[in-house]
């Protein structure tokens, strides 16, 4: 079988891959100018005077001055809803042919995120860059890239709208646009990938596992781990390498991998390369380079980034952004501080609040880590507990107790005229829950000064409930979010918290 990297890459993509390296600030200015030029004759571009912004002396600042910040509801109600009616040239030139359906981790109603041909082309460039980056890893098994690719994603079937567009899981859109030469390597193949029922799809993958020579797996950690566990069980294996000896690369994204790594390693016969990407329906944001701790933002392709300091000056207590917040450019950020991410893209997102929070590890390299979500944090009394803090505490608990916590979530609530946190963790390993919550509590005090302060005053109690992993999976199944890109929320609030508490009491939503 020919190596995937022997395939001739289209000239336009090859040219993009050979772009000379420039600093992030100049790359971003060029990206913004290109986006504004292409969209200046759209309804959005005319309304916000893109043609004048492009000709101004300071494009970035004039762009920020003239164009407001949008969250999904605002840009959908004012602009994107017109594209669903089949109207062209609204926020990006032409008609929108595809929409990725996304509900995040808490919202019930599906979001319709526009997917354009320009965005898909940009994403393809980034996929190839990421693939090539694997060769920078010292422990990489190069043969892995010549073997089958197993992509565990959502159903590839798309629904057709009245105006002629198609909508569905992003993996379904990518399947339609996947290059013909990739089909030779792609598993589980079109028929299995189209299955909507997650359990049926998983069983089909397990049934066919012995026929494939998997070298490269892509997917959300929880579902990929479940798949490998079932393969090992079905074929009575000691580890996954007994059936897939060339498995050498796992590409993951969507959630922090640290809580999963210990249990993942137990499934392996030898070390593999873990590659993290930062991919959303709105765009391919970044990926990990070599053995760096964080991911490098893609600053020279199709996304113009802005960074809103995630603090009380720019966000309210519920994590909603205020009107006219401070928004920084990539050369204005500081390492170690937390920012909410704004994106302008070639799919017609403009100053769009994606909902993620990040932290810069290396400003020069534009290297970041995802710290959480603007709506998924706990700060009942000023403890400012981020998902990053929680992940670190869980990872350290796994190491300390030699256990594997596969999922977790946390809620906050009033308690005896003060406040309390309650943790729910999923593990099949025996552990003393009192020792576990004491360790987690102490670790959070160590890494978060605000949390430590509040634990001596208003945050009076922290408790824990240890549950089997199947409990978390059953809840996601009842919510219709089993498999694919769905992630269990790390912080429970509002309607989902009510449903979770009812489920734990009755087994039903």
What would you note in describing this structure?
- By secondary structure, the chain is an alpha/beta fold.
- It has three domains: 22-118 and 281-373, no CATH class; 140-270, no CATH class; 387-506, GMP Synthetase, Chain A, domain 3 (2-Layer Sandwich), CATH 3.30.300.
- It is built from 17 helices and 18 strands.
- It has helices spanning 11-17, 24-39, 43-47, 50-55, 59-66, 72-84, 117-133, 170-177, 190-193, 198-208, 221-234, 258-265, 387-401, 433-447, 449-454, 469-478, 494-506; strands spanning 98-102, 111-115, 148-152, 159-160, 166-168, 186-187, 214-219, 249-252, 273-280, 283-288, 295-297, 303-309, 338-345, 352-362, 367-373, 407-415, 418-426, 459-467.
- The strands form three sheets. Strands 6-3-7-8-9-10-11-15-14-13-12 form an eleven-stranded mixed beta sheet, with helices on both faces. A four-stranded mixed beta sheet has the order 2-1-5-4.
- A hairpin with a 6-residue loop joins strand 10 and strand 11.
- Helix 1 (11-17) crosses helix 7 (117-133), helix 10 crosses helix 11 (221-234) and helix 12 packs parallel to helix 13.
- The protein is globular and about 65 Å long.
- It starts with 10 loop residues before the first helix and ends with a helix.
- The model is unreliable at 1-9 (pLDDT under 50).
Q: How large is the share of residues in beta strands?
A: 15-25%
Contiguous helical run count: 17
Round the Cα radius of gyration to an integer and report it: 23 Å
Determine the mean pLDDT.
Answer: 88
Question: Which strand order spans the largest sheet, edge to edge or round the barrel?
Answer: 6-3-7-8-9-10-11-15-14-13-12
Helix content: 25-40%
DSSP strand count:
18
- Give a quick account of the main beta sheet: strands, pairing sense, barrel closure: 11 strands, mixed
Low-confidence stretches: 1-9
Structural class computed from helices and strand pairing: alpha/beta
Looking at the structure, what is the overall shape? globular
Number of domains: 3
Distance between the termini: 50 Å
